[in-house]
Amino acid sequence: MMMQKMRGSAGKLMAGFFALAFLGWMVLQRGMDVTGTGPGQVSDVGSVNGTPITVNQWNAEYQRIYEQARQSTGGSLTPDQLAEVREQTWNRLVDQTLIQQEMKRRGIEVSDGEVIFAAKHLPHPQLAQNELFQTNGQFDLNKYQAFLASPNAPADIFPQLEAYYREVIPQAKLFRQVNSGAWVSDADLWRSFQDRTETATVEYVPLDLAKLAPGEPAVSDTEVKTYFDAHRDEYKRPNTARVAVAYFPETITDADRAATLDKARQVRAEIVGGGDFAAIAKRESEDPGSKDNGGDLGTFGKGRMVGAFDSAAFALPVNAVSEPVLTQFGYHIIQVLEHTGDQVHARHILIPIAKAEAEQVKLENKADSLYKLAPEKGLETTARLLGAAYIPSVTLTDQAPYIPGVGGAREAMDWAGENADDPENAHPVSEPFDNKTALYVARLESFTRKGDMTLAEATPQIRRELVVQKKRETARAAGRALLAQVHAGKTLQQVAAEKGLQVLTAGPFTRVDPNPVFGQASAAAGAAFGTPIGQVSDVVETSAGLFLVRPTARTTADRTAFMAQKEQLRQMTAYQLNQQQVQRWLAGLRKNAKIEDNRDEVFRRRPSAPALT
Q: CA 195, CA 513: separation in Å to the nearest integer?
């Protein structure tokens, strides 16, 4: 029976699996890029110690990471998310190349016997979790091995399995060498358990710089120069564009809301009139996570959905179709398929509130006119003629591509970089961009590529940093004066009130969990556990500010609970330490490697490269 089931699904199963599992291996293969040129030329995206990273490798790895990101978000990616995908692609390829080089240097290889043993006994996690190879919810090695031995197994599985194991086995050997000698003692485990389970509750006083260090202290040119010389490596200029912008806000009006509600009612009427819910959901719903499944949300309990949706779903009779339900996502048409205790199985159609189609078309036509007329009449004049808002100058960077009134402008930043070196058009005008907040057109005024900052460029930022440092020194001295008054007999509340400061409470919190007040693993958290109960700490500084901390209560770790979990904790902690060691090792390889990054130049010449879409 299992083989009959496998025969019908094996090809599909394995095709989906290997498309993901082996793409990472495939991009490690060395060869010619799409230009047909060899390594070391500018057509390569970069190189690591002389080993090229080709455009073909880049595109394959980019596509793999892009698909993972798209699946996790359930829809298309924003420009900022695409930028993150590009950065992850580069870092992944550099690391993969360094690992390959290190395995070659150490002479790490894999034998045929090791590959055969691994293929039979160490299935890829995705295969081990597949229901076809499970019995009573657990991986069944016999089923897996029977499949491998079956004549029904697709013939192309075995070369791909071999390729996979020839990649991962040497890497496993390498990482074992990197992590050799790692051991977690009982004392280390106990301290880790304490850090994660012991809690503290505190009173604390934020030392407000505005009250304790009013005004702005003077910062001399000499201080700026001294600071710049000591921190020169920290001051890197990002890609920076200066643009003029004209835009039309995509403001949602009452008429748009009414039109969306009317559409939702029409959709409901079609379903109530006998239309197929699933088919209509695939056609109309804008929920990327459920539309392809006919709107099916699966089974969920109370509190899992946003308030209005949750209330409507649990109030609906089975098979009834709700009136349009409004949430922050838009209007939902809900149908409950099954009630089981405190769970419901439901499906829905989401119709987001958007501009009426006719109004959106008008805006798009205006934006097109803006783009077409601006090169001749000027962007400012055209904006005034068409009623668009106009900003004469705004600075965008890779780190902060933002336009006031428009919002995120990653597309404009990318466009500026691609068009900055056009000798025939020094100040190009972009086609309209739509970020769902506004339709906008940009005119490029200037573009500066990333590099080391000059003293003049860094001076404003350094002055701000030195002003904050001086104000913190003043506030720190004031805080210690308050502490002296506490030691002299006043309460924390009294000395805080005299300076117009607040005494607040925080906790219970652990040493290591993210702390919304003090930050994670900060000096203030340390004071919360290290200062005697009821006493006030010295002034502590964190990224969140300066504080006086007074612990009011603490809990201690449970030794019995620790002993019951000790071996499990040892495995988990050892795994984490091994991962950290590998990352430190890779960072060391990176630091000593000769890494050439040609991405900007290559992709400026290749605006149609898949990785830029």
A: 9
Which pLDDT band, with edges at 50, 70 and 90, does 549 fall under? Answer: very high
**Least confident segment among 31-45, 129-143, 341-355, 458-472:** 31-45
State the burial class of residue 396 (Cβ atoms within 10 Å of its Cβ: 0-12, 13-18, 19+). buried
Backbone φ and ψ for 558, nearest 5 degrees, come out as: -90, 110
Counting Cβ atoms within 10 Å, is residue 438 exposed (0-12), middle (13-18) or buried (19+)? buried
Lowest mean per-residue pLDDT among 101-115, 141-155, 213-227, 332-346: 141-155
Radius of gyration for the chain, computed over Cα atoms and rounded to the nearest angstrom: 31
Q: State the pLDDT at residue 604.
A: 54
Q: How many CB atoms lie within 10 A of CB 187?
A: 8
Instruction: Read off the pLDDT of residues 395-444 as tens digits, 9 standing for 90 and up.
Output: 999 888 889 888 888 889 989 988 888 877 888 999 999 887 889 999 99
Burial 566-579 (b: 16+ CB within 10 A, else e): eeebbeeeeeeeee
- CA triplet 316, 321, 324: central angle to 5 degrees? 95
Tens digits of per-residue pLDDT, 182-207? 677 888 889 888 988 999 999 999 99
Q: Which of 280, 262, 414, 410 is nearest to 349 (CA)?
A: 280
3-state SS of the chain: helix, strand, coil percent to 5?
Answer: 50, 20, 30
State the burial class of residue 485 (Cβ atoms within 10 Å of its Cβ: 0-12, 13-18, 19+). middle
Task: Return the closest-CA partner of residue 285 out of 305, 301, 273, 271.
Answer: 271
Instruction: Kindly state the average pLDDT of the residues 516-520.
Output: 79
Written as one letter, the residue type at 6 is: M
Residue 64, both tokens: 């793999």
Cite the DSSP H helix spans in 122-156: 125-128, 141-149
Query: What sign for the dihedral angle of Cα 442, 447, 449, 455?
Result: negative
Please, which residues have CB within 8 angstroms of residue 331's CB and are 6 or more apart in sequence?
260, 261, 264, 324, 325, 350, 351, 353
Q: Alpha-carbon distance 413 to 44, whole Å?
A: 23
Do residues 83 and 398 touch, judged by C-beta distance below 8 A? yes
**Residue 112 buriedness (CB in 10 A; 0-12 / 13-18 / 19+):** exposed
Specify the pTM: 0.53
* In contact, 18 and 159? CB cutoff 8 Å: no
